[in-house]
């Protein structure tokens, strides 16, 4: 459960001929569990068990999705995300609502290193070292909610390649595919660099 402070405006419309619900909700200057959200928007439609999120925006994060509600799980036919100018991802998979476990295939991921200063946790590093170039990746993610710890854990494996990478004008370019793993408990391990 999340605490929401602020105002949301919305519309829901039922197309009687197709039995499709169309919806749109917008909000400005919201607080959700102590996190400030300057701009919020979601619009889409629901037809039977199928949800199409045409546009969802939370500040710099944009999401589109094609989801299907099934017994005990959500089938993710497509989930697209963009964060500012730094990250674009395409995914598919499923989310088990009973076990709170998501298995996701990342079909495409592209990160523009020149815009890594969009992330507060590495903003100082990005501004100091001025990275440039593009990292492209594909892979798999598994996210699971740990009830004892009260937090989400992430396990991922990926294949990635770097293009025109430079850090503080020192070229680190490699067009080779690197393989790696990420664990929210163990960190990152990269192979075949």
Question: Quick summary of this structure?
Answer:
4% of the residues lie in helices and 70% in strands. With 193 residues, it is mostly beta strands.
Order of helices and strands: EEEEEEEEHEEEEE
Number of strands: 13
Stretches where pLDDT is under 50 for at least 5 consecutive residues are none
Shape: globular
Structural class: mainly beta
Mean pLDDT: 92
Span between termini: 43 Å
Task: Give keywords.
about 70% strand, mainly beta, about 190 residues, 13-stranded antiparallel beta sheet, single chain
Please explain how this structure is put together.
With 193 residues, the chain is mainly β. The protein has one helix at residues 123-129, and strands at residues 4-15, 20-32, 35-47, 50-58, 61-70, 73-83, 87-96, 101-112, 132-146, 151-167, 170-171, 177-183, 187-191. Strands 1, 2, 3, 4, 5, 6, 7, 8, 9, 10, 11, 12 and 13 form a 13-stranded antiparallel sheet that branches.
